[in-house]
Write a structure and sequence with these properties.
single chain; 225 residues; Rossmann fold; DNA polymerase, domain 1
């Protein structure tokens, strides 16, 4: 990569937060646990589709709509309304991955500027990071609500760089999603892929500048850049 980035931009959902407990939320209402992954993938799909047609939908609204669709065909142990409320409540109670806190502390100790950029509302990273005791590591919490388009649209990444006063090419996106990495690279940003699955990076996307096992590993790699 081309030297130390001026700004490190973190994706939030799945990159910082651990969505694994959402499977338990589905199971608790009588739905198959694997539907948690189906739901989240559908949420992203519909959000991307709306963005492509010029809309800038609210993450929570899309998430609720897709959840109702997913659960409607399942014989639940409670009413659909109660099931939707119970599952969505779990999204606000997620914790960070184990590597996140030490990684963020190492990055702040090295004086990296950190911000978040989420397709959801800033209330989610606010609660997540406060609960983890690392809200102070981030100078700003940014949302695509103010960018006018969801990631991976170019406007989202350009918005983050502009808001922080750095050239887009001097910012580094950190994400677990290859589509997010691709979007950042296409917009001219640097990008780091957090490979939590251990699988290969998709060859049909633009390649990341860095590949790390976790945020702590990313901090170690950036220390020698």
């Amino acid at each position: 990569m081309a030297g130390r980035p001026q700004l490190v931009v973190f994706d939030v959902n799945e990159t910082l937060s651990d969505l694994t407990p959402m499977a338990d939320r589905f199971a608790a209402v009588g739905a198959p646990p694997h539907l948690a992954a189906t739901w989240f993938a559908g949420l992203l799909r519909d959000g991307f589709a709306l963005t492509l047609t010029g809309a800038n939908p609210r993450f929570a609204e899309v998430g609720e709509g897709v959840l109702r669709q997913v659960l409607a065909a399942v014989p639940l142990e409670r009413t659909l309304e109660d099931a939707v409320a119970a599952v969505l409540a779990g999204f606000g109670e997620l914790a960070v991955h184990p590597d996140v806190v030490p990684g963020l502390r190492a990055l702040t100790a090295a004086r990296h500027r950190l911000v978040t950029l989420t397709n959801g509302a800033t209330a989610v990273p606010q609660g997540l990071l406060t609960q983890a005791g690392v809200r102070d590591a981030f100078e700003r919490l940014l949302s695509v609500t103010d960018a006018g388009a969801w990631k991976p649209a170019r406007a989202a990444y350009e918005y983050a760089a502009a808001e922080c006063g750095v050239p887009v090419g001097e910012a580094l996106l950190v994400a677990v999603h290859p589509w997010d990495v691709h979007g950042a690279k296409a917009a001219g940003m640097q990008a780091a892929w957090i490979n939590r699955s251990g699988g290969p990076y998709p060859g049909h996307f633009l390649s990341p500048d860095l590949v790390a096992d976790g945020v702590d590993d990313l901090a170690t790699q950036l220390a020698v850049v």
